[in-house]
Amino acid sequence: MQTEIFIAYILTVLALMSTPGPSHLLMLSNSAANGFRRSLATAAGDLSANMLQMLAAGFGVSALIMAAPKAFIVIKFAGVLYLVWLGIQMLRKSFQTRQIETHSPRTSLKSLYLQGFITSATNPKAVVFFAALFPQFISEASSFWPQFLLLSAAYLVIDGAFLSFYGFAASRLRRFTASNAAKWIDRLGGVGILIAAVLLGLKSMPRA
């Protein structure tokens, strides 16, 4: 792969990630509530789902999804409902009486991982996105899989860096603010995820 093409790909991915998505908002909220290190389980779940979606795109599963629009819509709205549930849970948590932070129960690593994985995996459009993105930067004159794996690895590294940034920033904010501010972090995170769910739902509505 030519260096210029790879640089163009990197710049494209950075531009696409300039606006935080549902996974980034989830990472922010989980890091604020559970700490940066534990929230890395959420990032791992998100990246695991991305990796599977990339492989699905590489093997042409996106064509199968496009051929079954009803299944596509069902899976899409299942993801939207899951985001709505997460947002409501965060809002409910923000109105609960808080115990001393050092003794408050924390979400298990398994749950944090599953939250990240499900939030990303239930967005079937991601498969189509990867299937549409990668061909723009893959040369037919070279072997497909080495190029595909390079682009996939680069995407995961960039996405991981963004997730880590949001998580670290949220944990620092939580550490240097009063305990009552944690309620507002949960409220803002919950509202943010609900907004993201609404936007995803509107995008999933069939056009007239």
Structure explained in plain terms:
The protein has 208 residues and is mainly alpha-helical. It has one domain. The protein is built from nine helices and no strands. α2 (22-34) runs antiparallel to α6 (109-121) and α3 (36-58) runs parallel beside α6.
Chart the SSEs and their pairings:
Elements: H1 3-16, H2 22-34, H3 36-58, H4 61-67, H5 69-94, H6 109-121, H7 125-133, H8 144-175, H9 181-204
Summarize the structure.
This protein has nine helices and no strands. The chain is mostly helical and 208 residues long. The longest helix is centred in the C-terminal third of the chain and has 32 residues, at 144-175.
Descriptors:
208 residues; mainly alpha; 9 helices; 77% helix
What is the chains' assembly state?
single chain
Q: Secondary-structure element sequence?
A: HHHHHHHHH
- List how many beta strands DSSP finds: 0
> Number of DSSP helices?
9
End-to-end span in angstroms? 41 Å
Q: Number of folding domains?
A: 1
Mean pLDDT: 75
Quick one: overall form? globular
The percent of residues in helical segments reads over 70%
| Structural class by helix and strand composition | mainly alpha
Give the percentage of residues in beta strands. Answer: under 5%
Uncertain runs: 99-104
Describe the biggest sheet? none
Integer-rounded radius of gyration = 18 Å
